[in-house]
Amino acid sequence: MNIGTRKILDRSFTAVGIGSIIVMAMALMIVVVPIVTNGIGAVFFTGTIEHRKMLFNEFNRGDSENLSSEAASSNRYRAKVYSMMTGFEAELETMVPEKQAEYKAKYSQVRTSLQALLGPLPGDPEPMLTRSKYGQTRWEKAEEKLHDLLYESKWDNSNPDVMAKEYFVSRAIGFEGTSLVNLFPYVENNLDKILLPEFTCYWGFLTDSSVDSHFFGGIWPEIQGTFFLAIGAMLFAFPLGVVAAVYFTEYAKPGFLNSMLRSANSTLAGVPSIVFGMFGLAFFINTMKVSESKSVIAGALTLAIMILPTIIRSAEEAILAVPKTYREASLSLGSTKWNTIVTVILPAALPGILTGGVISLGRAAGETAPIIFTAAVSVGSAIGLADVFSSPTPALSWNIYNLASEHEAASQIRHVQYGMVLALVSIVLLLNLSAIVLRARVSKKLKG
Amino acid sequence: MAEESGGERNRTNAFVVSARKRTMQKLAKTAGEGMLFAVAAFVAVIVLFIFYFVARDAIPFFQIRGFSEFFTSTNWYPADQPAQFGALAIIYGSLMVTLGSALIAVPMGVAAAICLSDILPFSIRQYAKPVIEMLAAIPSVAFGFFALVVLAPLLQNNGGPLLMWAWWILVSPFLLLGVIVLSDLLTSNIRVQKRREQLHILYLILFGLLSISLLYKVGTALYGIQILTGTNALNVSIILSFMALPTIVSVSEDALQAVGRDIREGSYALGATRAETILKTILPAASSGILAAVILGIMRALGETMVVWMASGNSSHIPEPWFNYLEAIRTLTATIAGDMGEADQVTGSARFHVLFAMGLLLLVISFISNLISERIVVRQRKILSGQ
Questions:
Q1: What's the pTM?
Q2: Where are the beta strands (DSSP E) in chain B?
Q3: Which end of chain A is more exposed for a tag (fewer CB within 10 A), N or C?
């Protein structure tokens, strides 16, 4: 091969390597950016008067005078919509029967869209579900619902070779010649006066409990459950892991037994997370009966087993990184081995051990599979500290799955799902960032 | 004053130790070490317990239904009367996404590891490492959510164009490189310089046209593809490869670092370029360590639950044709997670035990591959230290 080609090959080899690192960084970006940009929308968004009504009624928050003056100005515009509707209902009665049936069907669709947009209409019975007590609380959702009101969605199946395409037909055309035709432009032009959108900063998203399975309110039960589970797992795993690491680094003698123990450690690290969940179910709940059924304690124990190998490994590394001179100085001063470990080595290794602990804490907080069968429930309020031995808890990781895949109206509460994912990802990434910073400091200090 | 005298007494006693006290001290030391050992052995006990308790609930399934149906039938109707427990399609689905993610993650991961250990200067490496750690830290459910809510609709609505762009962007640089190398190789034997250069250019044009037509043909074919469902094996494979990458990169970087400086310097001294050094000396020396990294990364993909549960479509059938990554599939982990809630735990039905049989299968696979990768790493360390 001539030298030019060899050079090109060398360069392109470098390019492939750098390219894959860039792709990895981009993968991180591609995943994190939509989560962050959409997740922020759970807290900062353009809220409507319905949101403020909901806050006032469900959480008793907000200024009642302000709210009632807003409601009054909103009602002025709503009244016109309602009067148009009653006018059309009267008109319906006078129509010939076949026309009446046709318009009635169309009109009921309009009515449902208006209900979704503005909340219960006058004359409606008191709704059972909280979600139908209010109109759209978020402006961007209100705009979607406005589109639903103005246009009817239809599917074009004319060409069997390609997938059906959605297209929209204006509803106003369907009501040509009746009094209702004026309703559509009126709602379209005055929606901002009806719903009074204004920029809202809803910190309650992080501290409120949810209302009507996450249609309104916040995610505090999930955040709290995640903390309970992760910290509970650390309470079990951290002391055990550090002690085991001390044994492996200071006392273990090379041999068959030791290599067996190390194999066991790496095996445990490689067990798929769902198997931990099965084990937690079969052992902690069905055999040990740590609780009647799912509970925080069973979940924390399962998670503890899962993060134990990581803690042992990082604690070992931290202990081994302590310079030999520390140990020798302590031993030469006449202190015993145990004394050296407790007073010299462990304090010096502590930041490194903590780094591993913090990373494991993040892993315990983010892991879902082990808690599906042992600790997680989809709905529920925040539990007290006394209930951890008996009751299950909602947790961020599980509820993200549940809301995104199993919730009956998953596509309507995307903002809540994104908010939850952002909360979880930021908890985990902040823990990891602090671990990275901590480790950088430690390595600087140990280098001197 | 009293404290001081107490200290005095202790100090004198420290040197004059009675026989009884010495045995006591020895006993305490042994007991303490024993306790430390007990804690360390706790991990081994847990591993045994996991095997025992998963197997305990898995064996009844094989007792009731035997082995052949589970491994050879594709009929998975656990809720029917009579129920059918053919897990072949589910096992196949697991293998399929694992293979798919390995195909993406292994070349990228090894390339990135080489880049980190041998190519990039330290100042850039410092920033690349945290990126990898962050990627490893993102919870699996967040990846699953991304796959379900962002990637799946994207694939479903713009699948064809996306595939075409991916093909062009990923393949065209390699084709270009291939054309250059191939035409060089074909002409390198010709002694006459003028003729060689003429032929070289001729070959370049010929192969260039061929590869451009290949790019275009495949690209248009891909453009026409309509992806019926965004929750499919391709989606899951992409996301799982993101998740396997950090493991592959960090473990194979360790393996590459373990290859000493002397081998590298020897190769450079013989006049090899960096690429040749890496490909012909460092990679062979580190190959077993990289194999271990690949096994660990693959295991991460095989054992992953949330992503496949949320974004694989959960349809238990073998795709038509068998390599069609654009169809929905179902995996072992997702089946365990999804069916456990519906299976009757109390009466010990086959439906409950079959899930444990799947768990046992996963556990055994992960155990064996862990042992293999550990052996490989130990052996490599021995060989390298022996040199």
A1: 0.90
A2: 76-77, 84-85
A3: C
